Amino acid sequence: MAGIFGVVSKKGNCSESLYYGIDYHSHLGTDYAGMAVYGSRGIERKIHDIRGENFRPKFQQDYQKMKGKYGIGVIGYDIQPVVLSSRHGVFSIVVNGNVANLHEIVEELQNQGASFAEVQPDSSISPAEVLAELISRADNLEL
To answer: Is the pTM of this model over 0.70?
Structure first.
């Protein structure tokens, strides 16, 4: 299980709200945590291994440097958020869930020439990166 949190700020910087929102979910994950904020400098991403440590001290200085109106974050068992540059632009994604046929999707995408960079410590492919790859292959991002 993981905890995810997202913020859209109309007034300005969202990073402090994102920081506290992710921390609120600390009981849902104990391995990795990450934040991605979109602002004038593009997407800024920070990920830390938090095994045996608390979320707040690991991200205290990071969130204070991140500036943007849009942010997503996660605390859980996978290394996320994933940032991907695609024909639709640059985007960041977090995932909380089980992709039942993940191995089949990965194999099909690799047979089509896809490569995956966000390999987890156990050598598995990140579900977030697989879903980001599927999004990037869509004709458009409309529902």
So the answer is: yes
